[in-house]
Amino acid sequence: GQWPQGLYVLVSADGLRWRKWREQPVFKNGAFDTLNVAFWSDLEKCYVLYFRVFTGWVDYSVKNFNLTGYRTISRTTSKDLITWSEPERMSFGPTPLEHLYTNHTRPYFRAPHLYIATPMRLVMGRRFLTDEQFAVQQVGKAFLGISGHDHNIPNQVADTVFMTSRGGTRYDRTFMEAFVRPGLDKGNWVSRNGVPATGFIQTSATEMSLYVGQNYVQPTAHLARYTLRLDGFASVNAPYAEGEMITKPLIVSGAHLILNCATSAAGSVRVEVQTIDGEPVPGFSLLECPMLVGDAIEREVQWASGLNWASLKGRVVRLRFVMQDADLYSLRFR
């Protein structure tokens, strides 16, 4: 993308040779000098485009602009990639605005109804490197020469954060902490580091990878690979002293309850199915659930009663987890 020209769609038959789908931009009205993301949403049955805007800048059609406010994210939708809805700015729940330079929003490949976003967060007025350390990084002179609108490259730092969405105009920022920190490499404490390549990629039967730009505008610039277990963005963690969690009401589907969970040698996970009023469902009580021990991406829960999950299909239930020294990463009905 470019501005004020707009965003273009490229197409390829082999993933190697690309051409413009149309000579005209498919969308205008945004600050397109970063990574802007569009995809077909099976959840919303339309194309969704997430792009950068500023909270205090409205008219993106001219080059003579006056940047004001926070760097943030808007979205628009389309049925045909040509006609787009009126853009709407994304909200972030009860969290403070931050400079989100990019968004990298994509459906999670194991649960496409969930969108995962890993923006680069720019923090103004902070630095870690001394003048001497900064000089060693050999930051590009053109980059250092950027000025205007709060640009002060030596006094800005950045990292990668984590957000989710279920469609619509709201991001969930339950985790305000950094998802990927700059770390010990001093080259990552230069402004605008921590921009990921868009999306997580499955790189083994149990692992997925995120690629993050490091040492920005330096001779050592590169992508670094970070790995997680599948579904391992976060977990419900129980200490050795044991802990419990009860889910919101869920409508049972499928024939199996599958967990992605891990325990220590001394740890365990047990599951009870409850009515919406909190009473154990006969045959699915905690006492009838054998203790789950071990580490697995897919672990089926069964009960000693011999009743199977399919017998609950269509019922509204809650799941009570009793765990000791364990992590629960995800659950699904299959």
Can you describe what's shown?
The protein folds into two domains: 10-229, no CATH class; 236-333, Hypothetical Protein Tm1070, Chain: A, CATH 2.60.290. The protein is globular, with a radius of gyration of 24 Å. The mean pLDDT is 94. It contains two helices and 21 strands. Strands 16, 17, 18, 19, 20 and 21 form a six-stranded antiparallel β-sheet that branches. Strands 3-4-5-6 form a four-stranded antiparallel β-sheet, with no helix packed on it. The chain has a three-stranded antiparallel β-sheet with strand order 7-10-11, with no helix packed on it. By secondary structure, the protein is an all-beta fold.
Number of helical runs?
2
**Largest sheet data:** 6 strands, antiparallel
What is the straight-line distance between the termini? 40 Å
How confident is the prediction overall: mean pLDDT? 94
Tally of domains: 2
N-to-C SSE string, H for helix and E for strand: EEEEEEEEEEHHEEEEEEEEEEE
Count every beta strand, where a strand is a DSSP E run of 2 or more residues: 21
> Radius of gyration in whole Å, from Cα?
24 Å
- Class from helix and strand fractions: mainly beta
Overall geometric form: globular
Model regions low in confidence, pLDDT < 50 over at least 5 residues: none
Q: Determine the fraction of residues in helical runs and give it as a percent range.
A: under 10%
Beta fraction: 35-45%
Oligomer: single chain
